[in-house]
Amino acid sequence: MGGAEPESAEVDRLPGWVTLLLAPNPGPMTLDGTNTWIVRAPGSDRATVIDPGPLDESHLRRIAGHDGIERILITHGHHDHVEGAARLSELLDGVPVRAASPAHCVGGEPLRPGESLDGILVLRTPGHTSDSVSFVVEREDGSAVFTGDTMLGRGTTVVAPPDGDLGAYLRSLELLSAYPQMLMLPGHGPARSDTAERARFYLGHRRQRLAQVAAAMAAGAETPAAVVDLVYPDLDPALRFAAEWSAAAQIDYLQQENNQEKKP
Ligand SMILES: [Zn+2]
């Protein structure tokens, strides 16, 4: 980990316009479970769901019990965020599901970067997946960025090829580092007060890991498994597959950088 994580930045008091419903799917990749967010439009009863989470009937019914839901938005196409979307739409009389990827839309158009939906701005932040977006909400009584899995409330996130792309991910983190004084409302883990600092913390962590992977490759490690053995000698076996995915992304990134340097 690139330096200590400031736990003091965790917040449990949210602005009145946002509600968190935690899905019952905890695990090594999902932390406490998927965070489903309900965002109320300013001065109205209209509401938007961000990430319905898994296909869990009681969770989806709990979401659908909230008034005024007019749309369902998806941060990215991983099943722990999107799996329940079609069923939730059904429970809500067919409200549209909108995601960056047409494959995850139900009765709605793909999200366009820069588009605003009831004051929820779509920001393209690829890297964790190629279809990852964040949502920015700026209000007088507190502003927030919904980061999906691009940044988590605790720990770091997986960037796994072929869909994940470390170069794109580093650029997305740089973009998010330009949002100071904003709440970060992630796809997993606690809400935090430090969006921009967290983006810089993630950037520092990635650069430190890249340096370690470059050193492992220089020492002869050629495969993700060999890199993981050198870089994470005491790894929890449950996290090994995630570490190998990350190592594959780092090897890809370093090889691409290398090839670019060699070009005239
Ligand atoms: Zn994900």
The number of distinct helices, counting runs of at least 4 residues, comes to: 7
Order of helices and strands: EEEEHEHHEEEEEHEEHHH
Structural class category: alpha/beta
Q: Report, as a whole number of angstroms, the end-to-end distance.
A: 36 Å
Summarize, please.
This protein is of the alpha/beta class. The radius of gyration is 19 Å and the shape is globular. The protein has 7 helices and 12 strands.
Question: Can you walk me through this structure?
Answer:
This protein is α/β, with parallel strands linked by helices and 264 residues long. It has a single domain (7-196), classed as Metallo-beta-lactamase, Chain A. The chain is 32% helix and 18% strand. It is built from 7 helices and 12 strands. It has helices at residues 57-64, 79-82, 85-91, 166-176, 195-218, 224-231, 240-262; strands at residues 10-11, 18-22, 35-40, 47-50, 69-73, 97-98, 116-117, 120-124, 133-137, 144-148, 183-186, 191-192. The chain has a 5-stranded mixed β-sheet with strand order 2-3-4-5-6. α5 packs across α6, α5 crosses α7 (240-262) and α6 crosses α7 (240-262). 39% of the residues are buried. The model has no long low-confidence stretch (mean pLDDT 93).
Looking at this protein, list some descriptive labels:
32% helix, 12 strands, binds zinc ion, Hydrolase (Beta-lactamase-like), Metallo-B-lactamas, Metallo-beta-lactamase, Chain A, hydrolase activity, single chain, five-stranded mixed sheet, alpha/beta
